[in-house]
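Render this sequence as a predicted structure.
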Amino acid sequence: MTTAATDDTIDAALGRWGDYDRDDPFPLFERVRQAGPVHEVTLADGHRAFLVLGYAAARETLNHPDLSKDMLAALARDGGVVAEGLPGPDFARHMLSVDPPDHTRLRRLAAGAFRRARLESLEPRIRELVDELLGELAVTEEPVDLVAGFARPLPFAVIGELLGIDRVDQRRLSGWFAELFAPYTGAEPPAVAVAASEAIVGYLDDLVDSRWDAPTEDLVGDLVVACREELLTRQELLSTLFQLIVAGHDTTTSLIGNGVARLLQHPDQRDALVSDPVLVPKAVEEMMRVDAPVHHATFRYAVRDTTIAGVTIPAGRQVLVNLAAAGRDPERNSDPELFDVRRNGAAHVAFGHGVHHCLGAPLARLEAEIAFTELLRRFPGMQLAVEPEDLHWGHGDGLVLRGLSALPVLLGPSPEDDNRS
């Protein structure tokens, strides 16, 4: 039997899961988790699903062999359990939406770009990009939007380096993706999102065509060669490129933005990192635990009746794993509401778990560690330019991503500026 909620507020939230306060959903997540590890919910689109909270239940679910991520198979079932979204099913044949053995095959073809040796060779370029972007930030008494000026362009530039996309095209793509994922109301996406989707699809088609006869020495070139050798289809190639761009920039943008906001609301923690940059890797794990950029894992459904934490999930039902709640589970992390950059062994599933564990996790960690180290070195006195309650998280119509729309900060003087004066 499904665990019963304990009060009317929780019942109302479960009756339309997703209509909670996006700016601070954590108190609700904790109340629901306390009521039980698994709950049946109704999503905003009317579909029924099972919500999984808690660290142990999340890990069990994320690696459960009876839960499928094959979105196209689900859509083919009567009634389907997930919306197609933009750009549609033609771009939905990537490693996040298939099961083994297809998942294993597609993941292996992209994995070379994320191996340690490749990341070590990319690290100097990441440092150059960080230095370039921080140098472009205007050091004035006026607020600077750190999302637009740093947190968003850095990950896009890094994934662009991996894919061999130049800076001019990176900016074009970044603008289209921002329009594609902008929150909207209503059942249908706005015309600007549809146009952005069509522009992205056209660009990626042209990109593959331009490198078909002369593959470049980058991830696009590697995938084109694999496609020519019939190791993956063109649909899988295009879907993989789309998914890598989305996963490679949006989540890391949110990690950096959410992390900076958290630090600036806890100046003692900011000062600890300024004083001892060696703590930055621990701090990044704590940011992932406390403020997971991906609040709910991507689509899964039960291929047969499945039991999670003692609750039976009927075959065909969608399953939603709350990664954010899992990181704040007191059964796994002591004093979980405390943000502590010195925390040892911060346990989270922000990068997933099992066979679908995020392929780009090492790159995201590397980017974040360099970004926070250099940002705090250059602007150690950085402060929020608005009250914390004036910060807003922009993925308001989706369950998966949670990132700041803008992050106004006062950078303050840079020690480098003082040395030059």
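Summary. The longest helix spans residues 234-264. The two ends are 70 Å apart (CA to CA).
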